[in-house]
Design goal:
globular; mainly alpha; about 80% helix; 2 domains; Growth Hormone, Chain: A; disordered N terminus; 13 helices
Length: about 425
C-alpha cells in the first residue's frame, strides 16, 4: 500500500513537473517569437539587408560555436540553479534590447542573449527527461513540441499586432518578462538534474567536451539519422526561403494567403506532436517513424511544388507539418533514449548545433539557388532530395542497428 501510494505521488509530481516545464518553455518561445518580429522591423528600415542578415546570424551562430562548451557545462552543474541564473541574465539582456535601439547595439545584445540561450536550451532539454522519467520521454516531448508549436504560430501574429499597437520596445519587455517568469517557475520544478559524483568540479575542463558529437557520430543508428536530419533541415529551409516567392509571384497569392500557409503548416506540427507523443518508445519503431515522417515531408514539399492554384497548396503543407511534428518528437525521444543521462547536455547541445547549422546553410543555399532556379523548381528539388536522403539513410540506419542487435543477442546467447 505504501509503495503504491509513493508511486502515485511520484507520478503526479512527474506530470506536474513536465506540465510546468512545457508551459514555461512555451511562454519563452512565444516571447522570443514576439521579440523577433519587433527586432526585424527595427533593423530592416535602418540597416537594410545587411542588418537583417547580421541579426539572423547573431541569433544562430552562438548556438553552433558554443555547443561543446555549453553542453559540457550543463552536464557539470546542478540544472535548476544554473537555469534560474540564465533566465535572469536573459531577462536583463532583453530589457537592454528594449532600451537601446541602435543597429549595432541591437546586434551586440542579440549575440549576448543567444550566448545565454546556447546554455539554457540544452539545460532545459536535459532536465525534461530527468523530470519525466525514462518511460515518459515520448509523452513529455510530444507535449513540449506541441506547446512550442502553438507559441511559434501565435508569436509572429501577436508580435505584429503589438508593434502596431505599442511600438517596438514593449514586445522586448514582454520577452524579458517571459524569461524572468520562466526563471522563477523553474524553482518550482521538483526534480533536478545534478552532476554525478565522478564529474569534475571544473566545468570548463576540456576533456570529453566533444562527447556529445562523439556519441552521435559513433552510434550506428544515430550517425546516419543525424545526416538524414541535417539534409532534411537543409531541404526544408530551402523550401522556406522559396515559399514567399512561390506563393506571391508564381501562384499570385496575397500576404494574407502567405500567412495562412504558415498557419496551416504550424497547425500540422501541433497535430503531429500530439500524435507522436503517443508513440511506442521502442527505438527501432522511433527510427522508422522518423524516417517515414521525413519521406512524407519530402513528398508533400515536392507535391506542393506541382500545384498550379493556391487553393491546392494548403493541404500538402498541412500534412507536411503533421509529419514534421512526428519527426521532431521521434528524433528527440530517440536521441534521448540512446544517450546516457550524464551526457545528455552535451548531446542536446551538439544536436542543436547541427540543426542550427543546417538552418543557416539552408538560408544561404536557398538564396543562392533562387538566383538560378524558379521557386517551383526549388520546391520540387527540395522535396525529392529530402525523400531520397531519408529512404537511403534510413535504410542504412535500420540495417546497422539490426545487425548490432543481432550481434548483441548472439553474444548473450553464447
Amino acid at each position: 500500500m505504501v509503495a503504491q501510494w509513493s508511486a502515485e505521488v511520484y507520478s503526479r509530481v512527474q506530470r506536474r513537473d513536465v506540465a510546468l516545464l512545457a508551459a514555461l518553455r512555451g511562454a519563452s518561445f512565444l516571447g522570443d517569437a514576439v521579440a523577433l518580429v519587433a527586432l526585424y522591423l527595427r533593423v530592416a528600415p535602418v540597416g537594410h539587408a545587411w542588418a537583417v542578415a547580421a541579426l539572423a546570424i547573431a541569433g544562430s551562430l552562438p548556438l553552433v560555436v558554443l555547443a561543446p562548451l555549453a553542453g559540457h557545462v550543463v552536464d557539470r552543474l546542478a540544472a535548476k540553479r544554473f537555469l534560474v541564473l540564465l533566465g535572469l541574465v536573459e531577462a536583463l539582456v532583453c530589457v537592454g534590447l528594449g532600451h537601446w535601439h541602435g543597429v549595432a547595439a541591437t546586434i551586440a545584445l542579440m549575440v549576448a542573449l543567444n550566448v545565454a540561450v546556447a546554455f539554457s536550451l540544452p539545460g532545459y532539454s536535459a532536465l525534461l527527461p530527468a523530470a519525466a522519467g525514462e518511460e515518459n520521454v515520448a509523452r513529455s516531448q510530444g507535449l513540449l513540441q506541441s506547446v512550442q508549436g502553438v507559441a511559434m504560430v501565435a508569436g509572429p501574429v501577436l508580435g505584429g499586432l503589438l508593434v502596431g499597437w505599442v511600438g517596438q520596445s514593449w514586445p522586448l519587455y514582454l520577452d524579458a518578462c517571459s524569461f524572468a517568469v520562466g526563471a522563477l517557475a523553474t524553482t518550482l520544478v521538483h526534480h533536478d538534474r545534478r552532476p554525478s559524483a565522478s564529474s569534475s568540479l571544473n566545468a570548463l575542463e576540456s576533456p570529453r567536451m566533444m562527447a556529445g558529437v562523439s556519441l552521435i557520430v559513433g552510434d550506428d543508428l544515430l550517425r546516419p539519422l543525424i545526416i538524414n536530419v541535417a539534409v532534411f533541415m537543409l531541404s526544408l529551409g530551402m523550401a522556406n526561403v522559396a515559399e514567399v516567392f512561390f506563393i506571391t509571384q508564381t501562384l499570385h497569392g496575397s500576404a494574407t494567403a502567405y500567412g495562412l500557409v504558415g498557419a496551416s503548416f504550424g497547425l500540422g506540427t501541433i497535430i503531429g506532436s500530439v500524435v507522436a507523443g503517443r508513440l511506442s518508445q521502442d527505438q527501432m519503431r522511433l527510427a522508422r517513424a522518423l524516417t517515414v515522417a521525413v519521406v512524407v515531408v519530402g513528398l508533400c514539399i515536392g507535391t506542393a511544388g506541382l500545384v498550379t492554384h493556391l487553393a491546392y497548396f494548403y493541404a500538402p503543407l498541412l500534412v507536411a507539418g503533421i509529419a514534421v511534428g512526428i519527426a521532431n518528437v521521434s528524433a528527440m525521444t530517440l536521441f534521448t533514449l540512446r544517450t546516457p543521462e550524464g551526457l545528455r547536455g552535451r548531446m542536446f547541445a551538439a544536436l542543436g548545433a547541427i540543426i542550427t547549422g543546417a538552418e543557416l546553410g539552408s538560408t544561404a543555399l536557398g538564396g543562392l539557388v533562387l538566383t538560378v532556379l524558379a521557386p517551383r523548381t526549388v520546391f520540387q528539388f527540395a522535396g525529392v532530395g529530402s525523400s531520397v536522403s531519408a529512404v537511403v539513410l534510413g535504410a542504412v540506419a535500420l540495417r546497422a542497428s539490426g545487425l548490432a542487435h543481432e550481434r548483441e543477442r548472439d553474444l548473450h546467447g553464447a
